[in-house]
Amino acid sequence: TSHPVGCAVALKNLDLLEESVLAHTQAVAPYFQAQLKTLEELPLVGEVRGVGLMGCVECVADRESKDPLQLDKDVGKRIDAHCHELGLLVRPLINMCVMSPPLIITREQIDDMVAILREGISRTMD
Questions:
Q1: Does residue 102 sit within a domain?
Q2: So what's the pLDDT on residue 106?
Protein backbone atom coordinates (compact mmCIF):
# COMPACT_ATOMS: atom_id res chain seq x y z
CA THR A 1 0.00 0.00 0.00
CA SER A 2 1.04 3.60 -0.18
CA HIS A 3 0.42 4.41 3.47
CA PRO A 4 2.62 7.39 4.47
CA VAL A 5 4.14 5.63 7.48
CA GLY A 6 4.96 2.53 5.41
CA CYS A 7 6.57 4.69 2.72
CA ALA A 8 8.64 6.59 5.30
CA VAL A 9 9.89 3.33 6.81
CA ALA A 10 10.76 1.95 3.36
CA LEU A 11 12.69 5.10 2.45
CA LYS A 12 14.65 4.99 5.71
CA ASN A 13 15.50 1.33 5.10
CA LEU A 14 16.78 2.20 1.63
CA ASP A 15 18.95 4.97 3.08
CA LEU A 16 20.49 2.61 5.63
CA LEU A 17 21.03 -0.08 3.02
CA GLU A 18 22.66 2.30 0.55
CA GLU A 19 25.01 3.75 3.17
CA SER A 20 26.25 0.48 4.65
CA VAL A 21 26.35 -1.56 1.44
CA LEU A 22 28.16 1.16 -0.50
CA ALA A 23 30.74 1.64 2.25
CA HIS A 24 31.26 -2.11 2.57
CA THR A 25 31.63 -2.55 -1.19
CA GLN A 26 34.17 0.25 -1.39
CA ALA A 27 36.12 -1.39 1.43
CA VAL A 28 36.23 -4.97 0.08
CA ALA A 29 36.41 -4.36 -3.69
CA PRO A 30 40.18 -3.61 -3.77
CA TYR A 31 40.80 -6.76 -1.72
CA PHE A 32 38.65 -8.79 -4.13
CA GLN A 33 40.61 -7.50 -7.13
CA ALA A 34 43.97 -8.12 -5.42
CA GLN A 35 43.03 -11.68 -4.48
CA LEU A 36 41.82 -12.45 -8.01
CA LYS A 37 45.13 -11.11 -9.39
CA THR A 38 46.96 -13.86 -7.48
CA LEU A 39 45.48 -16.33 -9.97
CA GLU A 40 47.72 -14.88 -12.69
CA GLU A 41 50.52 -17.10 -11.39
CA LEU A 42 48.71 -20.18 -12.77
CA PRO A 43 50.00 -21.35 -16.17
CA LEU A 44 46.51 -21.48 -17.71
CA VAL A 45 45.60 -17.91 -16.70
CA GLY A 46 46.50 -15.22 -19.21
CA GLU A 47 44.80 -12.24 -17.62
CA VAL A 48 42.71 -11.28 -14.63
CA ARG A 49 40.70 -8.10 -14.96
CA GLY A 50 37.78 -6.43 -13.30
CA VAL A 51 36.39 -3.46 -11.50
CA GLY A 52 34.76 -3.26 -8.10
CA LEU A 53 33.15 -6.58 -7.28
CA MET A 54 33.14 -7.81 -10.86
CA GLY A 55 36.01 -9.94 -12.07
CA CYS A 56 37.07 -12.03 -15.03
CA VAL A 57 39.73 -14.71 -15.29
CA GLU A 58 40.75 -15.36 -18.89
CA CYS A 59 42.55 -18.58 -19.77
CA VAL A 60 44.98 -18.83 -22.68
CA ALA A 61 46.94 -21.51 -24.49
CA ASP A 62 50.22 -19.66 -23.97
CA ARG A 63 50.84 -17.03 -21.29
CA GLU A 64 53.69 -15.33 -23.12
CA SER A 65 52.01 -14.88 -26.50
CA LYS A 66 48.48 -14.75 -25.05
CA ASP A 67 47.40 -17.18 -27.79
CA PRO A 68 43.75 -18.07 -27.19
CA LEU A 69 42.61 -21.57 -26.39
CA GLN A 70 40.77 -23.57 -29.01
CA LEU A 71 37.03 -23.03 -28.69
CA ASP A 72 36.30 -26.76 -28.49
CA LYS A 73 38.28 -27.06 -25.25
CA ASP A 74 35.36 -25.61 -23.21
CA VAL A 75 37.81 -24.47 -20.55
CA GLY A 76 35.35 -22.06 -18.93
CA LYS A 77 32.73 -24.79 -18.58
CA ARG A 78 35.28 -27.26 -17.27
CA ILE A 79 36.51 -24.79 -14.64
CA ASP A 80 32.90 -24.03 -13.70
CA ALA A 81 32.14 -27.75 -13.29
CA HIS A 82 35.11 -28.24 -10.95
CA CYS A 83 34.22 -25.10 -8.98
CA HIS A 84 30.58 -26.18 -8.76
CA GLU A 85 31.68 -29.48 -7.18
CA LEU A 86 33.56 -27.41 -4.60
CA GLY A 87 30.64 -25.06 -3.88
CA LEU A 88 31.29 -22.07 -6.14
CA LEU A 89 29.27 -20.96 -9.14
CA VAL A 90 31.08 -18.99 -11.82
CA ARG A 91 29.82 -17.76 -15.16
CA PRO A 92 31.75 -19.55 -17.90
CA LEU A 93 32.16 -17.67 -21.18
CA ILE A 94 34.22 -19.73 -23.64
CA ASN A 95 37.72 -19.41 -22.12
CA MET A 96 36.76 -17.02 -19.33
CA CYS A 97 35.21 -17.29 -15.90
CA VAL A 98 33.28 -14.24 -14.74
CA MET A 99 32.40 -13.53 -11.12
CA SER A 100 30.02 -11.05 -9.55
CA PRO A 101 29.76 -11.89 -5.86
CA PRO A 102 27.09 -10.38 -3.63
CA LEU A 103 27.80 -6.86 -2.44
CA ILE A 104 27.86 -8.09 1.16
CA ILE A 105 30.69 -10.59 0.60
CA THR A 106 33.31 -10.69 3.35
CA ARG A 107 37.10 -10.94 3.05
CA GLU A 108 36.93 -14.48 4.38
CA GLN A 109 34.40 -15.40 1.70
CA ILE A 110 36.61 -13.77 -0.95
CA ASP A 111 39.50 -15.93 0.27
CA ASP A 112 37.31 -19.04 0.03
CA MET A 113 36.07 -18.03 -3.43
CA VAL A 114 39.57 -17.49 -4.81
CA ALA A 115 40.84 -20.72 -3.22
CA ILE A 116 38.04 -22.70 -4.89
CA LEU A 117 38.63 -20.95 -8.20
CA ARG A 118 42.36 -21.71 -7.95
CA GLU A 119 41.57 -25.38 -7.29
CA GLY A 120 39.05 -25.48 -10.16
CA ILE A 121 41.62 -24.05 -12.57
CA SER A 122 44.29 -26.44 -11.27
CA ARG A 123 42.01 -29.44 -11.78
CA THR A 124 41.29 -28.25 -15.31
CA MET A 125 45.01 -28.07 -16.09
CA ASP A 126 45.52 -31.73 -15.04
A1: yes
A2: 96
CATH of the domain at 118: 3.90.1150.10
Phi, psi of 47 (to 5 degrees): -160, 145
Q: CA 114 → CA 9, 79, 93, distances in Å?
A: 38, 13, 18
CA distance linking residue 48 with residue 43, whole number of Å = 13
Euclidean distance between CA atoms 121 and 93, whole angstroms: 14
Report, as ranges of residue numbers, the positions in the chain whose pLDDT lies below 70: 1, 72
Q: What is the pLDDT of residue 1?
A: 60
100 in a structural domain? yes
Picking from 37, 113, 117, the residue whose alpha carbon sits closest to that of residue 76 is: 117
pLDDT of amino acid 2: 76
What is the tally of structural domains in the chain? Answer: 1
Pick the closest to residue 98 from 31, 47, 42, 63 (CA basis).
47
User: Would 119 be classed as within a structural domain?
Assistant: yes
